[in-house]
Amino acid sequence: MKILQESFGELNGQAITAYTMVNDQGMEVTAIDYGCIITKIMAPDRNGTFENVVLGFDTVDEYALHSPYFGAVVGRFAGRIAGAEFELEGKKYLLAKNNNGNHLHGGLQGFDKIVWATETVQKADAVSVVFSYLSKDEEEGYPGNFDIKVTYTLTNDNELQVSYTGETDQTTLVNVTNHSYFNLSGELKRDILNHQLTLKSDQFLELDPDLIPTGEFLSVENTAFDFRNGRKIIDGVQSEHPQNILAGKGFDHPFLLTENQSGEIILEDEESGRVLTVETDQLAVVLYTGSQMTGGYSVRGVPVRRYLGLCLETQGLPDSIHHAHFPSSILKKGEQFESMTKYRFGVL
What angle is formed at CA 226 by the lines to CA 105 and CA 217, rounded to 5 degrees? Predict the structure, then answer.
């Protein structure tokens, strides 16, 4: 196992570095210190052919200009916060408004647009890149100095482990995730409409027209949201369910997981034979099927279009601060924020 290091260009005078973790099976994961962005995951198909299975760019300028959070860590709070404001311990906080008057994915200068400090760790059976950042008090409007570490570890079992740890010196909100867009066809040969997804989930969150939770938990029963026995993404695109139509004919919804760390999320592409199994300690996964991807740019030579990739964002619930019955995303002084998600690549 090894880690390779190379320049990924410059942004605003800062050098950006790419780190490529390689395991003994030939699988590779490349990440840069700008936004902790995963730029490539080279995974084998059923014939042993290694191809990239995530959306990304080859230059940092493209990320700065075009990226809809491709591969990045998003925070301090993943998802939307209604009205870009909240109250905590009797005090009102105003956040950056960057999504129709609401707050999205940490704001204008969230974790996805930061150059992180890095260190590498090499062991016999795993290699890691550790990213660290101090998000200062009042950054993007959030209270408290929040010290966070994100660790990407590649194992010889073709598993990418993403772990988060953090602590704050004041009560604050924390909800972080990785925003990789997966496409298991390899090198974007096809869109993700015929990918099959299996989810251990009985309920999803109803969204309002701004894609913010209404507070209602809806049953997946007899809808295109029922992935318990596996179904293709195209079912949601063709669905007449108001929530599928609201999300631009597809999905942009948090699903409540009924199990953790037991193969609760499985994505398959029958043609390539690739399978991605996601296991997490988080209570939800946001399924986003790229239904808003437009913009006249290309992803490594492929013109961007809807459904070119899908996200499986393991996290707490968006806008939880405004819904008392949602599990809390409040982190207090002295508490440790911890989260772990594993992405295991295999074949059918």
Answer: 55
Residue 181 known to bind ligand = yes
Q: What SS3 class is residue 343?
A: strand
Both ends of the chain: CA-CA distance in Å? 25
pLDDT given for residue 313 in this prediction: 98
Residue 239 marked as a ligand binder: no
Q: What DSSP state is assigned to residue 149?
A: E
328 is in an annotated binding site: no
Q: What is the pLDDT of residues 186-198, one digit of tens each?
A: 999 999 999 999 9
* Residue positions annotated with a catalytic role: 179, 313
Give the domains, in start order, of the chain with CATH numbers: 2-347 (2.70.98.10)
Instruction: Please state the φ and ψ torsions of residue 84, each to the nearest 5 degrees.
Output: 55, 40
Q: Is 63 annotated as a binding residue?
A: no
Q: Which of 307, 210, 311 is nearest to 255 (CA)?
A: 311
pLDDT tens-digit profile of 118-176?
Answer: 999 999 899 999 999 999 999 999 999 999 999 999 999 999 999 999 999 999 999 99
- What amino acid is encoded at 93 in this protein? Y
Contact 141, 96 (CB under 8 A): yes
Q: Which residues of 53-88 are buried (b: 16+ CB within 10 A; e: fewer)?
A: bbbbbeebebbeeebbbbbbbbbbbbbbbbbbbbeb
